Amino acid sequence: MQPLQNDRYLRALLRQPVDTTPVWMMRQAGRYLPEYKATRAQAGDFMSLCKNAELACEVTLQPLRRFDLDAAILFSDILTIPDAMGLGLYFETGEGPKFQNPLTCMADIQKLPLLDPEVELGYVMNAVRTIRKNLQGSVPLIGFSGSPWTLATYMIEGGSSKAFTKIKKMAFSDPQALHLLLDKLADSVILYLNAQIAAGAQSVMVFDTWGGVLSGRDYQEFSLQYMHKIVDGLTRENDGRKVPVTLFTKNAGLWLESIAATGCDAVGLDWTVDMADAKARIGDKVALQGNMDPSMLYAPATRIEQEVQLILDGFGKGNGHVFNLGHGIHLDVPPENAKIFIDAVHKLSKPFHQ
């Protein structure tokens, strides 16, 4: 493998000195780019795009051709694990992901297989290897997975949900069944992320999109303890370099200290958290990733730059900040606004690293 030409993203995650704050965007490869829409049309549908290593590589690289990003993120989906477990993933136009065979009881959960990621999810590893080769050492590659709790929400609800009544019903009426599911998922995520690392991912991230729908006590029981298990089970060094791990729970501002205590290298922040507050609370223990409101990318250039400056001021001088949006970029954001944002981070952050 080629040596990395730009490693500031990895250095920032390990709170080492950098020349400027690194930046990437959640969902940077995706629907806001016309070239992505063209490639997806060529693939036929979303999962066919995920399962074709050459096309998954193409859409991973598309944003890097447009923008001065400091990392690439594997193009895949968080629901690859439940799909490989046989739940029958499909996508309804305008409605998001759905499962043909959602889980309803302990018996369903007991039947779930433990996955061999190089077999059932071999297409993801092929994509990782293809992307890593084509990056030619330009920037690091991020691998990722959904968190056990977030995966479980889709597997039990049968798709997206607003109230999460089915999974909460299981959590409170049959917690033993839910804990069995979460434990199986944690084991699968460990195998899956370690396989991504072996295939070439240089950093990994766990997305806990729906952890914030739980109370503080239930978050610890049903989400955080399983992410902690994953952190403990991950390969943390490969190719002679540390492999940093980032945990991101949306709407978790109340629980930052608990997340930082898992042993992760970085905590992802959504836009509801004040950067200065997060820095004061956990910034001496972990790196921080975030956290501009994705909707800010609808604003004029001067407002985008002003917001970047305010977040940089909030973090202040020192190491350990990876700039990102507080969640994924919206599909109708003009690509030129994403460029304004990325360029502003590099330009405005230089004085913070002198």
Give the gist of this structure.
The chain has helices at 8-13, 34-43, 46-51, 53-66, 80-87, 106-110, 122-135, 148-157, 165-173, 175-199, 216-233, 256-260, 275-282, 301-315, 335-349; strands at 72-73, 89-92, 96-99, 141-146, 203-208, 237-238, 241-242, 245-249, 266-268, 287-289, 321-322.
Give a verbal description of the structure:
It is a single chain. With 354 residues, the chain is α/β, with parallel strands linked by helices. It has one domain (22-283): Alpha-Beta Barrel (TIM Barrel). The protein has helices at 8-13, 34-43, 46-51, 53-66, 80-87, 106-110, 122-135, 148-157, 165-173, 175-199, 216-233, 256-260, 275-282, 301-315, 335-349, and strands spanning 72-73, 89-92, 96-99, 141-146, 203-208, 237-238, 241-242, 245-249, 266-268, 287-289, 321-322. The strands form three sheets. A seven-stranded parallel β-sheet has the order 1-4-5-8-9-10-11. Helix 13 (275-282) links the parallel strand 9 and strand 10 (287-289). Helix 9 (165-173) crosses helix 10 (175-199). It starts with 7 loop residues before the first helix and ends in a 5-residue tail after the last helix. The model has no long low-confidence stretch (mean pLDDT 97).
